[in-house]
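Hi L.,

You mentioned the student needs an example of a multi-chain input paired with its predicted structure. This one should do, with 579 residues in total across all chains.
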Amino acid sequence: MIELEQLRYVRLGTRDLQEASEFATGVLGLQHVRTESSRAYFRSDYRDHTLCYVLTESHYASFAFDVRTPEVLERARQAVADFGLKPRFGTEDECADRRVKAFIVFEDRTGNSIEIVLRPLMSGWRYFPGRDAGVTGLQSIALRSMSVDDERLWTTVFNGRISDWVGDACYIRIDRLHHRLSLHPSSRAGVLAVGFEIEGIDQLMQANYFLKNRQIRIKHGPGREPTSGQMFITFEGPDGVLFRFATGMTTIADDRAHLPRQFPDAPSSYCAWGSEVAIKELAGARPLADIEMRIP
Amino acid sequence: MIELRDIRYCRLGTRDLPAAEWFATTILGLEVMERSKRAVYFKSDARDHTLCYFEGEPEDQTTAFEVATSDELNGAATALEAIGHRVVRGTGEESELRRVRDFISFSDPSANKIELVLRPAHSAQRYHGTRDAGVTGFSHVGLFSTNAARDEVFWTTVFNARVSDRLGDAPLLRVNPVHHTIAILPGRRPGIHHINHQVAATDDIQRSNALLRDRGIPVVFGPGRHPASSAQFLYFTGPDEVTYEYSVGVRSIDDEPIYRERQLEASARGACQWGAQPVVKLI
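Structure written out for the whole complex:
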C-alpha cells in the first residue's frame, strides 16, 4: 500500500499559452509565477505552483500526488508495474520542469497520465492573487475513466478509499477530505474537471455572476453535491477542460466508521439544488439530449 | 409613541382566487389554514395565518402589525387622529374575518392601507408546508412610498420604527431586533413592493431557484446577498404582479444603543454583494 500525501499539481496542454494564462489569472484568479520555455506556472496556495500550462498541439493532461521518501517512490514504481502498468522515472529535465526532486509517470488503463512526485517545491512567499476570487488551494481532480481497473488502482496499489459511488462513478479520498479524486465512466480519457477550493458561498455566488457577465459557459451549478456536501460551480476553461470552484466539502475523520454510499445514476445525485448540468459524464442515465434541450 | 411588536399579516385582493391559492401553496409552499367563500387564509409559521387572499381588487392591499394591549390600540387611534390621519375602528365582523380581537385601520402618508391588530389568533398546530420550501415564517414587507423621506419620519416618530440602513433614500426599518420589518421603497403609487418569507437555509433558496426556473415563474432578483442585512435572497413574481421574497440569514440588531445605520447606494451593487442584477427596478 503506497501512502499518497497530497494532490500537488495539474499540468494541462494548451494551443494558446497566452489565452490560457489570461484565463488562469483573469478568471480563475490564480497568481502567475513564471512563464518559461513554453510553460506557464500558477499558484493557488503556499506551494510553488499547482497549475502548469504546457504549450502543445496535442491533447495533454497530467496530475501529481506526492509521496514522502525515495523508498516509497521506488515501491510505488514496483507496485504500479506489478499492477500491469508501465511506470518510468522522469528525466532530470522533466524533474526541473515540474520543480520536483524525482518522480515516476505512468498511464492508467484508460490512458490518463499520472505522476507520483518526491519533494515538490514549496514557496516561501504568501499566495497573493491578482483577482479576489477567494481561491484557497487546489482541491480535487475529476477524471474520465473507461475501465473499472482505474478504481482498483487507487484503492489497492495506493491508499485511496472509496467515499461514495454515483452509479459507477466513484469518489476517492486519500486524506480526510471526502474526495481528492473522482472517476467518471466515459468514452474517452482525460481530465474532466480541475477543482479549486474557495473560501465560501459569497465567493461561489460572486463567481457565478462574474462568469455570466463574461459569458463563460457554466456547465453545472451553482449547486451542492449530495455526496460530498460541497457547494460548487463548474465552468469551461481553455482547451475543453472544465474548472470547478467549490467550498464546504465534508471530511471523514473515522475511516472505519464511514461506509461508502451508493447513489443512483441520476443528475440529482450530482446536485441537490437542481441546477442544470451540461456535462455528459454527470448527466446520469438520462440521455444528454434531453437535458441540453432545457439549457437556454 | 406607538409600539409595533411585529408584522402580522398581509391581506391581498385578487380577481382569481384559485390562481392565488395555487401560487401560495404549490410555489410559495404555504399551508391553507382555512377557506371561506370569498377568501383563503395561509399559514407560514405557528401563527393562525400570515397571508390572506380575498376576492377583490388587486390594488386592495393591507399590511397589519401587532400591538400589545387595548390601551395601546386606543392610544394609537388617538395619536393618529391627532396628526390628521383618519382612523377606522374594525367592527366585530371585520375582526372575525381577520381572526383578531380588535383592530384599527388607517393609511400611511403614501396611502398604504395599514391595520393595527390586538390579540391575533395563534395556532395550536404547527405549520406543515405544501412543499418542502423550508419556509420558517412571514417576516417583512416592502411598501411603496411616494415620498420616502416623509414616510420615514412618519414610521420613526409616530411608531417605534428605527432606521437600520438606507439604500439611497429608501430606509429599512426595524421594530424589533430583526434588521428590518418594513422596507420603504420609492414608487409612483402606494402598494406592496414585496412580501418576505424566511427560509431555513441556503439550500432552500437555491432549490427554490431551480423550482421556479422549472415552473417558469419569473425570478426578478437573485439568488443574491444583501450587504445591508447580510441575508441571502431570491425575489420572484406572484399573482397580480406582487413580488415575493425568500431570504435566510437576516442579521439581528442586538446592540441597539450603539448601532448606527449605514448608507448604501441605491443600485444593484448596494442591494447585492454577489453581483445579481434585478430584472425590474426593485430599488
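You could point out the following to them. Confidence is low (pLDDT under 50) at residues 287-296 of chain A. Chain A is about 20% helix and 35% strand.

Best wishes,
N.
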